[in-house]
Automatic annotation (TrEMBL):
InterPro entries per UniProt: Tscrpt_reg_HTH_GntR, WH-like_DNA-bd_sf, WH_DNA-bd_sf
Keywords: DNA-binding, Transcription, Transcription regulation
Lineage, top ranks: Bacteria, Pseudomonadati, Pseudomonadota, Alphaproteobacteria, Caulobacterales
Organism of this sequence: Asticcacaulis benevestitus DSM 16100 = ATCC BAA-896
Top-level taxon of the source organism: Bacteria
Protein name: HTH gntR-type domain-containing protein
SUPFAM superfamilies linked: Winged helix' DNA-binding domain (SSF46785)
Gene3D superfamilies: Winged helix-like DNA-binding domain superfamily/Winged helix DNA-binding domain (1.10.10.10)
GO molecular function, one term: DNA binding
Domain HTH gntR-type: start-end pairs: 5-72
Amino acid sequence: MTDFNSLIEQVFAGIKAEICSGSLLPGQRVNVTAMSASHRCSKTTLRAALYRLVGEGLLEVHTNEGFYRPLVTDETVRDKYDWNEHVFMMGLNLSKLKPSARDPAAPFKSSADPVGDIERFFTLVVEQTDNSFIVREMERLNDHLHPLRMLKAALPLDLEAELVNFTIAWTNQDVDALKRLIHEYTQRRLDIIPQIVSLAYRPMGLGQPPSPRQPR
């Protein structure tokens, strides 16, 4: 049983990485036969992993039709970004905003992965609450928003500049500035929801390679 559970965990992590990288498009049906072959596992093992992903909200199961990626709509994009801001604000209000002893900006300097850095920053801040539920929710939101964030190259957004501003406010322990910045970050995305939704249905976000981001 331990080996079986370990295999499910491995398959779950692999499929989750594929989903978060945007390789499975919104509304696309999971080909169980092909995916089980790709992950070198039985269909039973694969389905166990897929049901876990349904529990994470990253897949949907349709009666007698199989597993699908949830659709991306104006409403779902708005709800996710609004909730991301709310969870971050809640974490910020509960945290003591104490940067670690090392240089707090170090993980975010000269990175080739601004999307991953933004997500790590969000998680870093809410981790200061020592509240596992808030941390888990932020990690879940990072999973859900990652495919949309990977569309950055085709959108009028400057993640690098946003990250610099976040880091400065964090380093200075300026809560008011950080709240303003996260609200502006959210609003910029809400202003271009139609573009985000349209791009979400294009394979790999206009041909961008998948992010190297690893699942939790």
